Amino acid sequence: MQQTTFVSGYYLDDKDLVEGIKALQDKNIEIADVRTPFPVHGLDKVLKLRRSRLPRAGFIAGAMGTAIGFGFQAWVFTEAWPLNFGGKPYLSVPSFIPVTFELTVLFAAFALVFGFLLSSKLGPGADNVIFDEEVTNDRFQILLEVSNGNSEQLQSELQAVGAEGVQHHDV
Amino acid sequence: MYKSFEFTKKIKSYLLAMIVIGAVLAVAGIAMNLDHTHRIWANVLLNGFYFTAIAMSAAFFVIVHVLGESGWHTAVQRIPEAMSLYVPIGGVFMLLVLAGMHDIYHWSHTEHLDEILQGKSAYLNPMFFSIRTVAYILLWSVLVLWFRKLSLKSDSNYDLKLFNKQRGVAGVFIVLFAITSSTSAWDWIMSIDAHWFSTLFGWYIFVSTFVSAVAIVIILLFVLKSMGYMEHVNDEHLHDLGKYLFGFSIFWAYLWVSQYLLIWYSNIPEETIYYVQRIEDFGFLFYANVVINFLAPFLILMARGTKRKLNWLIAAAVIVFLGHWLDMYMAIMPGSIKHPEFGILEIGMTVFVLGVFLYAFFRNFAKAPVVPENHPYFKESFDYDNIR
Question: Which H or E element spans position A11?
Answer without folding.
Answer: strand A6-11
